Amino acid sequence: MPFDGESGQVYDERIVRAQRSGCAKGECRWIGRCVGIPPVLEEMYPKTRSLQDMLLATILRNLDLLDIQCLATVPSIILEQLWTAIRRSRLDHIRIWTGFATTGVFGSMDRSRLQKAALCRSHGMAVIIKEVNSPALQWLVNLTLQTLECAPVDLLHISTLHNLRNLIIRGDAKASVCLTDSVMREWAFAARDKNALSNLQMIFADHHPDLTAWSIQHLGHFKQLDTFCALACGFERRASYKAKELGWASGSRFLTFAKSQLRLRSVSEGGMLEELPWLQTIGDYISHRRGTALNLTDNVPRIELSVGQVRIEGCPLRCTFSILDGGLLCLERGPDFERPCNDDQIPSTAPVSKRRKLKSGKMVRMDQLLDL
């Protein structure tokens, strides 16, 4: 009811303006959120529709209530029509995509570039990894982080991604995100003690000045890691010699693949090229390696997630690289690699007992010697 000014009561209203906790400009999109819009109940223009179209529209409006387990009993013809309608409306949520991928009707389904947008300061790496590490993203194999505004502590959450195979982290000239030796050490300890990142095979890092040769000693704790490439980081020229002492060979199959790509591009463009695009070459190498590897797990669906800025104003980062660049370090696990043992697992050797010397001039019986 309206306030009565003659009632004798005191009425005071104060409006406090608070900043929104979410994205004010809508620049950041949640990883699991759909891009499309469900169909409205009333169409803008009149038209006749069949019962099938009405049922499809009803399903599209209630995809959040769809039980994924029920898709296993649906005929393939209906699944194809439903999936076509979902893709047409751009409602292929990651949970919905996972449900259709498990049916086996569409073969081996791949999903790449799930999100590639600028993140706001309200959503940190912990929120992103929480979404990425959900059961719906259990097939995440490739993760690319580009120019994110996060602290090195936030990168520790990546160790919870158990199925990750390839990790690409791009730094920034302003050091907004930085991979450091301490982060590599924490990842290595998590891999050693908690079996974290057990499927990680390749790491590509660029523009991280705090990543130095000290981190090479921790690479051996990753069980499946066989390729490590760093561009424009804090590695010195003698880092390759230190890596060789630890069982890592300087020069890898990635460099061989890059040389072949450079020759092909030079022939196709009719000129002598010296540089290659960094991210594109890495993506081509991952696809090439996946195609040549005889692994049964490659038949399962794959998800490639790229989080970060799509366009960088002024392009402060170096988007290309040269094979002959001194700032490029590529290491590959050699055949004589020995896994470093933990300090707490080194067996303690028993002290050597002092032996009694016997003179050759005296005859001592065995029973007398045992009694001594």
Question: What would you say this structure looks like, in words?
Answer:
The protein is of the alpha/beta class and 372 residues long. The protein is 26% helix and 13% strand. An eight-stranded mixed β-sheet has the order 1-8-2-3-4-5-10-6, sandwiched between helices. The chain has a two-stranded antiparallel ribbon with strand order 7-9. α5 links the parallel β3 (166-170) and β4. The longest helix has 17 residues, at 253-269.
Distance between the termini: 108 Å
User: Which residues form runs of ≥5 with pLDDT under 50?
Assistant: 113-119, 294-298, 310-316, 341-350
Number of helices: 9
Total beta strands: 10
Global structural class: alpha/beta
CATH architecture descriptor name of the largest domain: Alpha-Beta Horseshoe
The percent of residues in helical segments reads: 25-40%
* Shape category: globular
Q: Report the major sheet.
A: 8 strands, mixed
Rounded to the nearest angstrom, the radius of gyration is 30 Å
